[in-house]
Design goal:
There is one protein chain. By secondary structure, the protein is α/β, with parallel strands linked by helices. The protein has a domain of 213 residues: Glycoside hydrolase/deacetylase (TIM Barrel, Alpha-Beta Barrel). The chain has 9 helices and 9 strands. Strands 1, 2, 3, 4, 5, 6, 7, 8 and 9 form a 9-stranded parallel beta sheet that branches. Helix 7 links the parallel strand 5 and strand 6. Helix 5 packs across helix 6 and helix 8 packs parallel to helix 9. It is globular and about 50 Å long. The termini are far apart.
Length: 320
């Protein structure tokens, strides 16, 4: 072998280890580059860095069941928890109350003589209204008892009648000055604690007098109360005066017991019921000392079957 060929072969053997190492280095570099490219192509949620708190749950949860933020109002008005919406049971919906066919307010006048007199009224268990006369032996006691039972109480204010009838204590006459009338009304309210309104006892002359009714109703307005016109005369001006002064008011529809006879009272109660169904509302007035509460108790199923509900008289203020 010639020296020149031997030198070439020796040179190739010397270079072989270097070429082998360079080849492996190139393969490794290519692998790293491929790995970096693959990582860059993956979705953001698959990044190798650890997710921030809460981030992983959002990325792995479909949009329809994203967790609800705490503190937002839930179906019941309180804050929701962090559970997904799909995992939460729907809140129960309260039963819808049926719309009543009509509303009726019943007022029992002339209370205040004794507690025994009003017990049948309280035993009805319905939201009727009690009108208490001032200055009687049990006026304040009856008013407190009725309030404790959840009933509305009115001052049953004696007002002068056309006939020569005795008013009793705490009465308003047309001969009084405005100041005297105001003082009588305030005194009557003090004797019937918890009264939320005023209605008239008798009153056919007084309720037809605009000056007298203005003096009465200015005190009613001052005390933040309302007025019920019993309509003992067709000449009454109580309602228009009340509305002119901005006093909430309503008027009587039917007197229930002008005759203290069960058959007559039952007929009047049914007349009230029929009027309410036609008009949508009605106000009936009876008396505590008569058998009206007992007759009404027997007829309550007729109200229920007709879908007519008994309400406090304040629920019908300004009804027309």
């Amino acid at each position: 072998m010639s020296p020149a060929r031997h030198d070439r072969r020796s040179s190739r053997r010397a270079r072989s280890p270097h070429l082998w190492r360079a080849g492996w280095a190139a393969v490794m570099a290519l692998g790293v580059a491929a790995g970096a490219w693959w990582t860059w192509r993956q979705p953001q949620g698959a990044a190798l860095s650890p997710p921030r708190p809460g981030q992983e749950a959002v990325r792995s949860t479909p949009r329809a069941v994203l967790p609800t933020a705490r503190g937002l109002p839930g179906p019941g008005g309180g804050p929701l928890g962090g559970a997904p919406l799909a995992a939460r049971r729907p809140e129960p919906t309260p039963a819808t109350q049926p719309t009543p066919a009509a509303r009726v307010a019943l007022i029992f006048d002339d209370a205040g003589a004794s507690l025994e007199q009003v017990e049948p009224i309280l035993a009805l268990g319905r939201p009727v209204t009690l009108a208490v006369l001032p200055g009687l032996a049990a006026s304040a006691t009856v008013a407190r008892r009725a309030r404790a039972a959840g009933l509305e109480v009115l001052l049953h204010l004696p007002l002068e009648a056309e006939e020569d009838r005795r008013l009793g204590p705490g009465g308003v006459t047309t001969a009084m000055s405005d100041e005297e009338i105001a003082a009588v009304v305030r005194a009557g309210l003090a004797e019937v604690p918890g009264a939320v309104g005023v209605n008239g006892h008798m009153g056919s002359r007084a309720t037809a007098d605009p000056r007298v009714m203005t003096a009465v109703l200015e005190v009613v307005r001052e005390q933040g109360l309302f007025f019920v016109d019993s309509r003992t005369t067709p000449r009454t001006v109580a309602l228009p005066v009340a509305r002119a002064l901005g006093v909430p008011a309503v008027e009587r529809t039917v007197f229930l017991d002008n005759e203290d006879d069960p058959a007559y009272i039952a007929g009047q109660v049914r007349k009230l019921l029929e009027g309410a169904r036609t008009r949508g509302w009605a106000v009936g007035i009876g008396h505590a000392q008569r058998g009206t509460a007992e007759v009404l108790r027997r007829l309550l199923p007729e109200f229920d079957r007709a879908g007519v509900v008994l309400v406090p008289v304040s629920a019908l203020l300004n009804a027309r």
